[in-house]
Design goal:
Blueprint (H helix, E strand, L loop, with lengths): L1 E4 L16 E4 H4 L6 H10 L4 E4 L4 H4 L8 E5 L6 H4 L3 H10 L5 E4 L1
Parallel strand pairs: 1-2, 1-3, 3-4, 4-5
Length: 107
């Protein structure tokens, strides 16, 4: 699975997704500072299947009806790697269960 981590996430969080996935950060793709609408277009065109962020406002700022990428919003008590890494297994549980919406909040 090809996964993109938003620039608001700790970059080292990519190592917590395991070796069976292709995980990139926004910085690694050269997309730092790109606005969300353009970023969503870029990641879709680049073949990403999952976008992970902590931006809880994203669903209200963008028209996500036609996007084919699953978006997961990590909602931890803070944005530290030690906190957010505990939420990663829930992403794969939700994917395995199916019936996902475009935006999925993980608490």
């Amino acid at each position: 699975m090809k996964i993109l981590l938003d620039e608001s996430l700790p970059r080292k969080l990519k190592f917590d997704f395991g070796n069976e996935h292709e995980v990139w950060t926004v910085k690694e793709k050269g997309w730092l500072g790109v606005k969300n609408g353009v970023l969503l277009d870029l990641l879709e065109k680049d073949g990403f299947e999952v976008f992970v962020t902590v931006d809880q406002n994203l669903p209200y700022q963008q028209n996500l009806i036609t996007i084919s990428v699953m978006i997961f919003v990590l909602c931890g008590k803070d944005n530290r790697r030690v906190t957010l890494r505990l939420l990663i297994p829930e992403i794969f549980i939700r994917i395995a269960e199916g019936n996902l919406r475009t935006v999925n909040e993980i608490w």
